[in-house]
Design brief:
The structure holds 2 protein chains of 2 kinds.
Chain A lengths: L20 E14 L2 E14 L3 E5 L6 H9 L7 E10 L2 E2 L5 H7 L4 E4 L13 H12 L4 H14 L18 H13 L5 E5 L7 H18 L2 E6 L2 H7 L2 E6 L2 E7 H6 L4 H9 L38 H5 L5 E3 L2 E3 L11
Helix pairs in contact in A: 3-4, 4-5, 5-6
Chain B lengths: L1 H27 L4 H5 L6 H11 L5 H13 L13 H36 L4 H15 L2 H15 L11 H31 L2 H8 L4 H19 L1 H19 L4 H10 L3 H29 L8
The chains are: A alpha/beta, B mainly alpha.
Chain lengths: 343, 306
């Protein structure tokens, strides 16, 4: 896939910034503590998701995108990671200052989350229907029969084959793709306003990936949900995103509407990612890769975090960290952005 | 259920093989059966005749088949020392052992699981650290020493409980606790680690994301998942209790199967030693089968898929 592949989607949905914001993350900082020392893995992330828009958070493993997502749900692994600063607001309400009880009420009901590995994400000793029922009844005052009805409807919307007959199935009786559909059903059963999907297709077969993605997008459109999709797969981004935020080493380095990001990437890291996409029209030659490695979060370099890998780095880049500067619908964290050339 | 049935067949095979092993082991252990049954003044001629009468001069395999035939027909014979019917001894001492072993088995889980849960919920608190250090000590202490210590402390020094005897509640407490001690310690550790593993699992994160209360997740989902490994080790606990019963019953003068067996071996009372060894083997094997059945019930992945 390359820049031209996204053209077909341009103009289908207007860019999100004119709608009312659902999720606003400002200057979010998350630290991980291990062996007595602690270091920042999310360094001042700012992100907004509006109603009826899909925002993709892209970055390589360990860049802090999953931590960002988990912190919205209040599900950071206890005793290991914690939010040390910033603000997360859902419909204007600060999530970080909520009581446990209030946060629990929001989960699944207003904000849902789908995880990466459907194989381990479902309780193996209970039938899927009983878990769905349990989640539904913990938020709605309905009878078991009504809860089952809601559950079946959700499973059907998630396109699980023979949904009604599957309620008594145990997770081990379902394939990975089917389990991810159960996870989707669990996430959409209560009509949440915001859906966070953390690499929802990474663990699945390529063919199933496309179906699951298609299904997620269909549910998002018909419910006008806001959706935060976390992925490292630019092909996924190109096919579903409205807006894209690129994350590197715990910082957002660039944000733009999807078409502009692919056609005119500004940040050298984004440019490198797009250049690294395999091009099927070229049959020979080695694949492009970004030189160097991600700096270890324990000892970040003094200036721009990408400077050690950047071919355009100036002296300034080694000394000071650029701020994220906003220009209309786009933002960029770079002192020396160069025009994009493919290849 | 297929798994349960095949396990049952396996159990029968194990019983058969162990009956051979027990039979031969006792024959090979040396000593003379006549020493137990006959007075020291008996003549060698009389002794020979006695061995003949018991069939001890026949080839061992023949003795084995004769013996198994008698067991399967329900008459395993009599003791050489006091001529009591073995079946009567089994009923009488088996009951005592069942009371002691059953109590110990109950203690292992009724004390071990709640303590393990407590330790897992209050991880790294003083309660957790106390429970864990105590269980480490409990696993390291040999139970014959623990038995002596218990007798010294609670019977001799404090005078709260009798040091030996049968078969009231007061006499039961010390041997049952000593017998259960190591099992409790192992169950505590097992429960704690199984609970913690379950709490850190992806499916618990899913349930949290579903907005279920922490209490509900712990009591229903975490505990239910943690039970699987705990049950899987129940069979080992049964074997442990049966094995330790030999020591504990002897020390506390509890007239159970273990004590009878130890005495029979010391006196070269073949029929008793042989029969009660087999009974204990059968108990262990059947206990394992029961535990395995429980494991199959607890773990839906092992049930036949629909």
């Amino acid at each position: 896939m390359n820049a031209t592949a996204v053209e077909s989607r341009s103009g289908e949905v207007p860019s999100g910034l004119d709608r009312s914001p659902l999720l606003e993350i400002e200057d979010l900082r998350i630290s991980i503590a291990s062996d007595g020392s602690s270091f920042e893995v999310v360094k001042g992330v700012a992100l907004t998701v509006c109603e009826n828009e899909i925002v993709c958070l892209v970055g390589e493993s360990g860049c802090g995108k999953s931590m960002t997502a988990l912190s919205v749900m209040g599900l950071l692994p206890r005793g290991i990671a914690k939010v040390t600063g910033g603000r997360i607001a859902f419909e204007g309400r600060s999530l970080l200052s909520l009581q446990k009880r209030e946060l629990r009420r929001l989960r699944a009901d207003s904000i849902s989350m789908i995880f990466q590995d459907p194989i381990t994400s479902l309780d193996p000793v209970f039938p899927i229907g009983s878990v769905l029922e349990e989640v539904i009844r913990s938020h709605r005052d309905v009878s078991r029969a009504e809860a089952r009805e809601i559950a079946v409807r959700a499973l059907m919307e998630a396109e699980l084959p023979d949904a009604a007959d599957r309620l008594d199935s145990y997770p081990h009786q379902l394939s990975g793709g089917m389990r991810q559909r159960v996870m989707i059903a669990l996430a959409i059963a209560l009509d949440p306003k915001l859906l966070i999907a953390d690499e929802p297709t990474t663990a699945l077969d390529v063919t199933v990936q496309a179906q699951i993605l298609e299904n997620l997008r269909a549910r998002q459109r018909e419910r006008e949900m806001g959706m935060l999709l976390i992925t490292h797969d630019l092909a996924v981004v190109a096919s579903v995103a409205d807006r894209v935020a690129v994350m590197y080493a715990g910082e957002i380095v660039e944000e733009a509407p999807v078409d502009e990001l692919f056609s005119d990437p500004q940040h050298p890291y984004t440019q490198g990612l797009i250049r690294s996409l395999p091009d099927i029209s070229v049959s020979k030659g080695s694949l492009h890769s970004i030189p160097g490695r991600v700096p270890p979060p324990q000892v970040p370099p003094p200036g721009c975090l990408f400077a050690p890998r950047c071919e355009h780095a100036l002296d300034l880049c080694w000394e000071a960290s650029p701020e994220l500067s906003r220009d209309g619908a786009k933002s960029l964290r770079c002192y020396n952005a160069q025009p994009f050339e493919i290849g | 259920m297929k798994r349960t049935a095949s396990r049952l067949a396996y159990t029968v095979i194990v019983l058969f093989v162990s009956s051979i092993a027990v039979f031969y082991a006792i024959r090979l252990s040396g000593g003379d059966a006549t020493a137990a049954a006959l007075p020291g003044s008996a003549t060698e001629e009389f002794r020979e005749e006695f061995r003949d009468r018991l069939g001890l001069n026949e080839p061992i395999y023949q003795q084995y088949f004769t013996y198994m035939g008698r067991i399967l027909s329900g008459d395993p014979g009599n003791s050489l020392t006091n001529n009591k019917a073995l079946t009567d001894m089994l009923t009488e001492h088996g009951r005592n052992s069942l009371i002691l072993g059953g109590t110990a088995f109950g203690l292992v889980f009724l004390v071990g699981i709640p303590l393990g849960i407590l330790a897992s919920l209050r991880r790294n608190s003083w309660a957790d650290q106390g429970i864990m250090s105590l269980s480490t000590v409990a696993m390291a202490v040999p139970n014959f020493w623990l038995a002596l210590l218990a007798v010294w402390l609670f019977a001799s020094t404090l005078g709260w409980l009798p040091s030996a005897g049968c078969c009231g509640t007061k006499q039961l407490i010390l041997p049952a606790v000593v017998l259960a001690f190591e099992g409790i310690a192992l169950t505590v550790r097992m429960t704690r680690s199984a609970m913690i593993e379950s709490q850190n699992s992806d499916y618990v994160r899913t349930l949290r994301a579903g907005g279920l209360s922490e209490w509900r997740i712990t009591c229903k989902h975490v505990l239910r998942n943690a039970l699987i490994p705990i049950i899987s080790l129940a069979g080992l606990r049964i074997g442990q209790i049966v094995g330790y019963a030999l020591i504990v019953e002897t020390i506390f003068g509890w007239p159970g199967l273990g004590q009878v067996l130890v005495n029979a071996v010391l006196r070269r009372d073949y029929p008793v030693a042989q029969f009660f060894s087999l009974v204990l083997v059968a108990l262990v094997v059947l206990g394992n089968w029961l535990a395995d059945t429980g494991y199959t019930i607890a773990n839906p992945r092992l049930r036949k898929s629909t």
